[in-house]
Amino acid sequence: MNDVQSDLAQLTRLALAEQTEDVRLFVARLVRKYRSTDPDLAERMNLYLRTKAPRAALMRKVASAPISSAQPLPVDDESRLSLLKVFKDGPDREQPLLALDLEETLSQLIQERRQAKRLASMGLNPTRSAIFVGPPGVGKTLTARWVASQLDVPLYVLDLTAVMSSLLGRSGSNLRTALDFAKRSPCVLLLDEIDAIAKRRSDDADVGELKRLLTVLLQEVDEWPATGLLLAATNHAELIDPAIWRRFDLVIHFKVPEMPAVKQAIKRFLGSDHALFSRWIDILTFVFHGESFSDIERDIQRFRRTVALGRASDTDLIEEFIKSRAFVPGRTVMERQGRIELAVLLSKQTHMSQHTISDITGVSRDTIRKYTSEQSTAAKKTSKGKPDNSS
Ligand SMILES: Nc1ncnc2c1ncn2[C@@H]1O[C@H](COP(=O)(O)OP(=O)(O)O)[C@@H](O)[C@H]1O
Ligand SMILES: [Mg+2]
Fold first, then answer.
1. Which of 136, 197, 203, 376 is the most buried (most CB within 10 A)?
2. Alpha-carbon distances of 84 from 76, 149, 325, rounded to whole Å
3. Residue ranges of the domains in the chain?
4. Is the CB of 141 under 6 A from ligand 1?
């Protein structure tokens, strides 16, 4: 089939499926396509587009859209929910805390875009699509936002829950409307929590409809124009169909932060209260290790509010917090080895009494004494090169 024939076929398909909004979008695309080669045809199609008023709800202009885009945001006909959330941030947006390899990968992704011309001159396209995988609260959505800000384009977030909750039977065309919209302008599109589709698929509903949605999605990933960047994010790698994985140019794994990143995160979230809590930072790093950035942030903000209101001293607050994380009698919270390490850290870095330390870690004073003296012996041995006899 030649180009015109395939356009005609596509138009027929959309028209017969009564996907009026898709027909409009498609015709709009044709107008642009033929404007230079066949201005009369383009003019005529444009006229038809304009004379038949758009379905009011669908093309409704979002009055206070936070961006200065000329295009109205697509809205679901039935629910009136805006299908796309918009974020427009300046390039001075703070970079999320990222593991080194991840930072490397993203930096290349951004450079490919900035130097797209250079790549093109060598016959190469930039990465068109990437999927972010990892547990909740480690910065997948945040990073998408940051990438868009670095590229100086808006981020559109497609809320798949909104798409899915709109009447079944319309989800397919809703999805397509939103995707078409995003394809028309330079932007980053994030399909957030893409597992919403997979989840729904496994627990019933209209299997046929969900299959169709998935098909739409997969086609889009395949055909995404190199002018845009398509991102997806999921907390549930195991729910994602392997067919989806394969489609993306890049798979990026997000993990819960390692110790150094936990420490950086604590400092960042403490902000101007950094000095107030500085003597607790190593302790908190130890206790927070293994948690997500958003969990860490939530607790730190709570500390700051409590101290700001004068409801507790930082010492009481942190003591109580450590105890809740380390030792609740009758319940294993932290492994014994971890509690011993914590007790040693507390006795080295704070003025807490051994009694208090024992109380909040559940490690006996004898054990604490044993480990702290062992450690100081070892330290003296290495620093002086001879055994220490004083203890
Ligand atoms: N890597 C990170 N660096 C800094 N803050 C983070 C990071 N990851 C998460 N946060 C904090 O947690 C919040 C939630 O993160 P989010 O990006 O929504 O997580 P996810 O999409 O992975 O579930 C963010 O708004 C931010 O305040
Ligand atoms: Mg998220």
1. 197
2. 10, 17, 39
3. 1-53, 60-253, 259-384
4. yes
Sign of the Cα torsion 102, 104, 107, 109 reads: negative
pLDDT band at 362 (very low <50, low <70, confident <90, very high): very high
Ligand 1 atom with minimal separation from the 96 CA: 3
Q: Is the CB of 257 under 6 A from ligand 1?
A: no
- Tokens at residue 311, please? 């409801």
What pLDDT sits at residue 169?
59
Residue 275 host element (H or E): helix 274-277
88 has a pLDDT exceeding 70: yes
- List b or e across 71-87, with b for residues whose CB sees 16 or more CB atoms inside 10 angstroms: eebbbbbebeebbbebb
With a cut of 60, say whether residue 72 has pLDDT above it: yes
Instruction: Tell me what pLDDT residue 304 has.
Output: 96
Residues near 187 by beta carbon (within 8 Å), at least 6 away in sequence? 148, 153, 154, 155, 156, 228, 229
Which amino acid makes up residue 246? R
If you average pLDDT over residues 106-129, what whole number do you get?
A: 94
* pLDDT of 344 over the 70 cut: yes
CA-nearest residue for atom 11, ligand 1, is: 294
Tokens of 102: 């991840």
CB 281 within 8 A of CB 266: yes
What atom of ligand 1 comes closest to residue 135's alpha carbon? 22
Q: How far is the CA of 11 from the centre of ligand 1 (A)?
A: 42
Q: Which residues have a beta carbon within 5 Å of ligand 2, which is an ion?
A: 140-141
DSSP 8-state symbol, 23? H
Q: How far is CA 177 from CA 74, 148, 216, in A?
A: 7, 21, 11
pTM, entire model:
0.75
Determine if ligand 1 sits within 6 Å of the CB of residue 135. Answer: no
The amino acid at 226: A
319 against 81, higher pLDDT? 319
How do residues 301-317 score in pLDDT, each as one tens digit? 999 999 999 998 999 99
Structurally, what CATH architecture does the domain formed by 60-253 represent? 3-Layer(aba) Sandwich (3.40)
Instruction: Report pLDDT for 353.
Output: 92
CA–CA distance, 176 with 214 (Å, rounded to integer): 11
